[in-house]
Amino acid sequence: MAFRRRWLTLVVLVTLFGISPAFAQTPVAHAVLFYSPTCPHCHVVLNDVLPPLQARYGSQLHILTIDVSTPAGQSLYSAALQTFAVPAYRQGVPALFFGQTHLVGSDEIPARLPGLIEQALAAGGNAWPAIPGIEPLTATFESGAAPVAPSASSPFSRDPVANTLALLVLTGMAIAFFVAVTRLRWPFDRPLSVTRSRWIPVLAAVGVVLAGYLAVVELNQQRAVCGPVGDCNAVHQSQYARFLGVPVGLIGLVGYLAIIVAWLLERFAHLRLARQALVAMALTGTLFSLYLTFLEPFVIGATCIWCLLSAITMTALLWVNAPPVPQHVARGRRSLSPS
């Protein structure tokens, strides 16, 4: 009799409340990761952090990845920043949105994401982040079909205004470099006028400020303060922000400081070697700046105004160190340029 009463009670409860399908479903954690293909920290997250988590949680972990180098991806990323009120100092990729939580960087994401996943699954799962315009991508993801990738674009077309500016600077630098080389005479010890000599420490000091700021940004992985044109942070987060493992900004800072030291030695100690070093460093620095400036519009697809200003400064230093050759000297001495 007691057994029959319990059975009837169970039937009544099922009839009144039903069995929600949600109880039969497996909880799922949802997240959205924004990345850039030229960002080394993004590749750390994509290749080293996410695969072990995906292998561990399987179908219980859904992470939608979005490329910010495409116009559609950049638009969604901007919408996410605005929706979640992300402060400027925390803007950058890799950026992961999990529920109401925003994680950034290859250190914070692996440190906090596993705990967030566990909490979400224990609570029965979570919804996709409320990013305006992301619904078609999440619906495609949930259906099991491959998300439709935004149309591919050439690096230059990702930011035509800023990249056109970089192209103009690159052209001007190339012309200035060619003219300067035709003026230089071995062994690079031709004295400068007082006016030209005084410009060297001024330009080098400007370079120290520019390169010093870039070095701080790169070493501390901070967001650079950019103007209305360009995307400095996309450049600094690319694999080309380091040369032989050393931040490019730090290389520039050391170079400008070395130019100041060489100028002081040439000016006050009258060392011929210091004068030669000034020309050699200006030549090398301008060549390196030409290389970096070329990468921005044609490889990275983003332009850094700070980098352009530094490149212009280094080119100006070369120009100052290569005065026009007097006519009587031009007839009697050999140029660096092929005859």
TrEMBL record:
<dbReference type="Pfam" id="PF07884">
    <property type="entry name" value="VKOR"/>
</dbReference>
<keyword id="KW-1015">Disulfide bond</keyword>
<keyword id="KW-0812">Transmembrane</keyword>
<keyword id="KW-1133">Transmembrane helix</keyword>
<feature type="transmembrane region" description="Helical">
    <location>
        <begin position="300"/>
        <end position="320"/>
    </location>
</feature>
<feature type="transmembrane region" description="Helical">
    <location>
        <begin position="277"/>
        <end position="294"/>
    </location>
</feature>
<dbReference type="GO" id="GO:0016020">
    <property type="term" value="C:membrane"/>
</dbReference>
<feature type="transmembrane region" description="Helical">
    <location>
        <begin position="198"/>
        <end position="216"/>
    </location>
</feature>
<keyword id="KW-0874">Quinone</keyword>
<comment type="similarity">
    <text>Belongs to the VKOR family.</text>
</comment>
<dbReference type="GO" id="GO:0048038">
    <property type="term" value="F:quinone binding"/>
</dbReference>
<dbReference type="InterPro" id="IPR038354">
    <property type="entry name" value="VKOR_sf"/>
</dbReference>
<feature type="transmembrane region" description="Helical">
    <location>
        <begin position="165"/>
        <end position="186"/>
    </location>
</feature>
<protein>
    <submittedName>
        <fullName>Vitamin K epoxide reductase</fullName>
    </submittedName>
</protein>
<dbReference type="InterPro" id="IPR036249">
    <property type="entry name" value="Thioredoxin-like_sf"/>
</dbReference>
<keyword id="KW-0472">Membrane</keyword>
<feature type="domain" description="Vitamin K epoxide reductase">
    <location>
        <begin position="193"/>
        <end position="325"/>
    </location>
</feature>
<keyword id="KW-0676">Redox-active center</keyword>
<keyword id="KW-0732">Signal</keyword>
<feature type="signal peptide">
    <location>
        <begin position="1"/>
        <end position="24"/>
    </location>
</feature>
<dbReference type="InterPro" id="IPR044698">
    <property type="entry name" value="VKOR/LTO1"/>
</dbReference>
<dbReference type="InterPro" id="IPR012932">
    <property type="entry name" value="VKOR"/>
</dbReference>
<dbReference type="GO" id="GO:0016491">
    <property type="term" value="F:oxidoreductase activity"/>
</dbReference>
<feature type="transmembrane region" description="Helical">
    <location>
        <begin position="243"/>
        <end position="265"/>
    </location>
</feature>
<keyword id="KW-0560">Oxidoreductase</keyword>
